[in-house]
Amino acid sequence: MTKSLFPPLPALTTERREWSNTRHGISRSDEYAWLRADNWQDVFRDPSLLDPAIRTQLEAETAYQTALMADTAALRESLFKEMRGRIKEDDSSVPLKDGPFAYGSSYVTGGQHPRFFRTQRDGGERVILLDGDKEAEGQAYFHLGSVDHSPDHQQLLWGYDNKGSEFYTLRVRNLAGGEDLGDVVPDTGGGGVWNASGDGFFYTRLDDNHRPSRVFFHRIGTSADEDRLVFEEDDAGFFVSVGGTRDNKWIMISIGDHETSEYRILRADEPDATPQLVAARETGLQYDLEEGGDVFFVLTNADGAKDFKIMETPADNPIRDNWREVVPHEPGRLILSVMAFRDFLVRLERKDSLPRIVVRERATGEEHLIAFDEEAFSLGLGGAYEYGTDVIRFSYSSMTTPAQLFDYNLRTRERTLLKTQEVPSGHNPDDYVTRRLMAPAPDGELVPVSLLHRRDTNLDGTAPCLLYGYGSYGMSIPASFNTNCLSLVDRGFVYAIAHIRGGKDKGYAWYENGKRAAKQNTFTDFIAAARHLVAEGYTSHDRIVAQGGSAGGMLMGAVANLAPEAFGAIVAEVPFVDVLSTMLDDTLPLTPPEWPEWGNPIASEQDYKTIAAYSPYDNVAALPYPPILAVAGLTDPRVTYWEPAKWVARLRDRSTSGNPVLFRINMDAGHAGASGRFSRLEEIAYTYAFALKVTGKDAAVP
C-alpha cells in the first residue's frame, strides 16, 4: 500500500509524559498513560468534564483524519446514498400476538428511530405507543433500551440513554392516555421485568463503576429512592441481570461471568419474596433456565457436557439434585439456546459450523429438524410471546439471500413466509456468489471462511478484499445478509468473514482453544484465512483490508504486530488494544468480569506474561505497518476512548512504513457509535471510503 494515496501531511504528534509501573517484578513504561481521564466516571455522565488537555488532543485527531480523508467527501456521500437506498425506510415488523393485542415496531420515511405500536390481535388500526424520533428530538445522542408492555396491557416500560455511556433511565407510560407517569428510574441496565399484577417492575441498577450488581423492585407511583433491594452481588467479577418467563410466572435473576453462572428465582406474583437459589455457582459450571409449566428446562455444561445438554427439574424445587437429562450431550453439536412451549421444546444449535433449529415434542420425545439448503446461512429464533402457542417465528438469510421471516407450526410443520427483506434500490441474488472455504491454520485446524463476491468479479488475485473477524467470548459471526457490504462488493471487493477460534463456530472447544493461554490461535487463524484467500486466487495481500471491532479490534492490533505484510490496511473499530493496562485496572466496568476470558494479571504472573505477549499496545514495534483507521466513542464504557488514542500515538512513533494512522472519535457517542439508523450509515460510509481509498479501487460502481 502506498502512502501517496493520502495528502502529504506531517504525522500528528502526541505529547509524551513519563509513566512506569512494576508488577510481578516486571517494569513497563507508558508515555501516553496521561490520556486516561482520572474522572472517567464523571465524563461518562457529563462529557464536558473531560480534561481540556485530553480534549485538545482528541480534537487534533479529528482535524488530522478530516484532512487526510477530505478527498473522499463525495465518495462518502455516494456510499451513504447507496446504503440508504437499500433500506425500506417505512419498514415495519410483523406484529407478535399476545393476549388481545399484537405488538410490533416500525419506522417512518426519514426517521432515525423506531416507533412501537400495537393492533388488535387479528389486525386493525395501529396505535403508536412510543415514538423514538419524538423522544430523541433535540438530543445529540439517543438510544432506546428495551420496551415492554405490562401483563395487563395497560402500561409500557421503556428505557433510554442520551449520552452513549449506557446509563439508561427507565420510564413508565400509561397506554390509556399516552403520557409518562412520574416514575423516573436512573442508572439502570436499560430494561426491566413486570411483576404479575403490573403494579411494579424489577430492574438492575449500575454502580459507580458501571457494573450491574443489584436488582431492585420499583412499585409504580413511588420514588426510585424507595425501591426495594431484591438482590446484591458482592463479587465485582460477576454481572447481574433480571428476566421473566413467557407465562409471567417467574422472575429470574441471572448472575455470571464468562465461565460460571448462577440463578435465583422468585414468583412474579410475590415481588416481596426472597429469591430462591437454584444451583450455587461452581467455577466452570454454566446453566440457563427456561420455564416450562411445572418444570424448568436447564441448558447446561454440567458433568463434562462441553457442548451443552438439556435437563429438566421441578419448578417448585429446581435444585441441582433434581436435574434429569432430557437432551443428552453430543460432542460437536453445540446447543445455543432453548425455548419451551406447552407441548414443544425448541432449540437452536450449531453443527458442522452451521446453525439449525430442532423441534421436540415434550410428550413423546420425537424430534424433527427445520432444514435449509444453502452452503452458508444464518438463523434467528424469535419464538413467541405466548406459552400455549403451536406457532413460533424464525428468520433466515444468507450472504446472498435477503432476510426472510417465517411462522412455523410446530405441530403441522407448515412453514409460512411472512416477510422478505425489501431492497428498494434492487437486488438480484443471482448476481452474487457465496462460498464457505476452509483455511488451514498453522497447527492443522481448518478455519471456516464465509465469502461473498459478484459473479463477474475476476478471481485472479487482483480483487480487493474486506476480511472481517472477531474471535472472542464464544461469539460466532453469522453468514447473514448485509446490504451495506454490497457497496464494496459491487465495486469488485470480495467480502469475507473468518470464523476463527475464540468463537463457537465449531463448538465449545473452538472457543476454549482461542482464549487465555491459547489466545494466539485467534490471531494466527485470522492470518491463515488471509493467506488462504491469497493462495486460492481471491485477492492479494496488499489488497486485503482487515476489519474488526471491540475484541475484534484487539484482533486487528495483534495481527498488525504479527504480520503487517499480510494486510493492505486495517480498520479497528472501538478497539480493545490496551489489554494489559485494562486488565490491571480493576476499577473499570468490565475488568473483573473479564478475568475468566483473558486472565487476571493482578493476581497471576503467568497471566500477566500471557497477556503482555499479545496485547497490541504493548507490542507495537518498529514494523512496516499498513494504513490504519481506528474508530472510537468518547463515552464508551466497554472499550474506553484512551485505548485507541494511546495506540495510534504509539503506532505513529514506531511505524517504519510512513503509512498514515487515522483516529476518528465520536465525541457524542459510546461503544455502538452514532445513534439513529442513518447516522450509523454515515459512519459505515466513512469506513468503506477508507477501504476504497487505500486499495486504490475505482469508486464507481461497475
From TrEMBL:
Peptidase S9 prolyl oligopeptidase catalytic domain mapped to chain residues: 480-697
Source domain of life is Bacteria
Q: Name one GO molecular function term.
A: serine-type endopeptidase activity
Domain Peptidase S9A N-terminal spans what residues?
Answer: 15-420
Give the Pfam families listed for this entry: Peptidase_S9, Peptidase_S9_N
**Keywords annotated in UniProt:** Hydrolase, Protease, Serine protease
What's one GO BP annotation on this UniProt entry? proteolysis
InterPro entries annotated for this entry? Answer: AB_hydrolase_fold, Pept_S9_AS, Pept_S9A_N, Peptidase_S9_cat, Peptidase_S9A, Serine_Peptidase_S9A
Family membership: Belongs to the peptidase S9A family.
Annotated protein name in UniProt = S9 family peptidase
Species of origin? Tianweitania sediminis
